[in-house]
Amino acid sequence: xxxxxxxxxxxxxxHAHGEAGLPAPLDTAVPDSELAPSELGRRRFLQRAGxxxxxxxxxxxxxxxxxxxxxxxxxxxxxxxxxxxxSFRWLSGDHHIHTQFxxxxxxxxxDQVQHANAYGLDWVVxxxxxxxxxxxxxxxLVNPRIVQARNQVKDTLVFQGLEWNIPAxxxxxxxxxxxxxxxxxxxxxxxxxxxxxPNGTGTRAPSSPxxxxxxxxxxxxxxxxxxxxxVRDALMLANHPARKGIDSPHEIxxxxxAAPRIAIGMEGAPGHQAAGFPEEYGPxxxxxxxxGAPSADSFPGxxxxxxxTYGGFDWMxxxxxxxxxxxxxxxxxxWITANSDSHAVYGDTSVRGDENFATNGFYxxxxxxxxxxxxxxxxxxxxxxxxxxxxxTDFSYAAVMAGxxxxxxxxxxxxxxxxxxxxxxxxxxxxxxxxxxxxPRGTPVTLSIRIRTARRPNWSQFVPQLAKVDVIxxxxxxxxxxxxxxxxxxxxxVRSYDTSGQTDxxxxxxxxxxxxxxxxxxxxGSDGNRLGVGLGGPSVDPAGPVQDVVGDAxxxxxxxxxxxxxxxxxA
Amino acid sequence: MTLSWPPATWPPATGDGGPxxxxxxxxxxxxxxxxxxxxxxxVALLAEQDASQDAVVATHLTRLGDLxxxxxxxxxxxxxxxxxxxxxxxALPDSVVSSDVHPAPLDAAAAGARAHAxxxxxxxxxxxxxxxxxxxxxxxxxxAGSAITAVRVLGSADxxxxxxxxxxxxxxxxTYDGGQLVLAAEWAxxxxxxxxxxxxPTPCCADxx
Lengths: 571, 209
Fold this sequence. Notes:
The complex is a heterodimer of chains A (571) and B (209). By secondary structure, chain A is α+β, with helices and mostly antiparallel strands. Chain A has helices at residues 37-49, 67-72, 109-118, 132-152, 182-193, 209-227, 249-258, 315-318, 323-329, 357-360, 397-406, and strands at residues 89-97, 123-129, 157-165, 171-176, 234-238, 263-269, 309-310, 313-314, 335-338, 350-351, 367-368, 386-392, 409-413, 417-426, 429-431, 436-439, 444-453, 468-475, 492-498, 505-514, 519-526, 560-563, 566-570. Chain A has a 15-stranded mixed sheet that branches. Chain A has a 4-stranded antiparallel sheet with strand order 15-14-17-20, with no helix packed on it. In chain A, strands 7-8 form a two-stranded antiparallel sheet. In chain A, α4 (132-152) packs antiparallel against α5 (182-193), α5 runs antiparallel to α6 (209-227) and α6 runs parallel beside α7. Chain A is globular, with a radius of gyration of 22 Å. By secondary structure, chain B is α+β, with helices and mostly antiparallel strands. Chain B contains 4 helices and 11 strands; from the N terminus they run βαββαβαββαβββββ. Chain B is globular. Chain B starts with 22 loop residues before the first strand and ends in a 14-residue tail after the last strand. The chains are: A alpha+beta (571), B alpha+beta (209). The interface between A and B is large, with 45 and 30 residues.
């Protein structure tokens, strides 16, 4: 296959990072002198806001080389008024949504978008499955419907993407900034790099070195499409990563390292959160449809525990000292999200229209069912249960993507909390979620937490109560010698706050001691309904999420929030 | 139908571990259900020879070869290994038949046979007492009435109480691990256990509707 694409950069410099992907004002490799005045103004604004050069722009917060220096740009002075809310506009969204252009789904684009909008989402990504039909037909036919939805629902941003069958691995969201080439780019990417193969043969699906290399090539293709300005931006996130054990640790590391500005993270919590309702009135499956067992394609090192969810979250994320922490302790920025994966909604009264997907590339519009509401569906509408909150500088497609890339992201289920403002502070400076702070050794480090509790009912008509907040801390130990490791032995819950009964605003300040070795912190909170000793034992996680029971997991009675990490490194 | 018997590596040499005891079969099955269907064929074959009662037929996930796939291994004390190997080769044409005693490097079939023989790996599809593991049974009955030697509950180091009910869903696939034949189980509705392996897992990209 050929992936030739033009390399006629409008600006003359070579990107020093090897893999560029940022708009020029955000790209620290572009000197001030090469920026147009408007771009320079934007860069100055971003520098003042502390948003430029965050750790995510480097392959590692530790470098290479100037990575730490670049991270310095991410710090800002603490606000004079601690009661002031942060300067970001937090936009809630969902990057994993299916429509009638997927072989296993049924809704129109506008069905999904108007539900997302009604349930409070500011942005969504339409991610129909990579299939032969989608590559030939759907990827083009869905676009005018997305454009129409953008016009009909002005206050929800609608990205076009696809759910990539990552060669040799699981599914992943791939999406691009809207623009004249969004369809052609996605079509070429899907045709050349989707694991379902050009004719749906699935020859790219098995785990093999060749297929793993093809996945990396696909990510490099996306990076190239951004650097040559074919599209303004592109991102990839691994979906339901532990579901079938086929995203090996070295593949995840490989994606991140090959394209650090494209491959930015994974679903911390999968969709299909209604799938664990008991058979009497639900699908009776595993929460998230996590009810499988190892196959020949699975990474042999994963324990059976990895095939289930814990408090609705994927094992890679929910295990303290687990796979996610092993990446973070390397200094590798890798962010988590939470999405609906909405295909067919629990209790919905509509059914599929005509069944000619194989020929048409899409199903007919859904029709009202005169049968009973369908309680065997395992999904929620976008925004109804799972939310990914992104700290953006403004309400725009570019700002959502930039915020995600920077890791200014936290997630929750069932609207557990209204808002979070988390800062890591040292030496008179601070960073938001996703940030990297540097300070001289010996500098006291403080974690500042401001939580606005839920004050209005959620979409299940109750006001969630936050029972506890956990601070999770791990040392930065540098690049992993074994690329297949999924353990961070030093990471543990270092502080647990009982927040039960507290309402309105909860303000916590956790002293992390004087800086010695670099470390990171991340937060987690729970409604306190289902707590138990984590997989790492009581010294690591004494009261963490509990394995979800297959066929007996009420998602509304087990709510969590998770934040992305912040690092502090000795200068 | 191609039958090349005996293969170059047969009869197996007598190695440090003594004579061959387990026969490995590689039919190139990509997924477990496919391999389970082959296992059913093997069990029927053993039954014809009146050798199924005390036999163990297991599957093995392997990365040896072009693609990850699933092999089988068969231990049938009632049949001479040589005869068992020949019967399998005849019944499963286009398969590779090997044994736990095999010169290095091991092929996929031999690797599975060796894991089975040393009880270090393999997922048992057929084993003594498996026919009794239908409906609901207690942990005590399961251990007493079958070749399974331990029940491990996911995420727990403690053995479940003997009177705990296991809802078998008529699909019980214990695995060899460290010399034991262990059934991995997880908690289910009503404080009962179910085997970890779901007889009908949600397929990838399933039509959930």
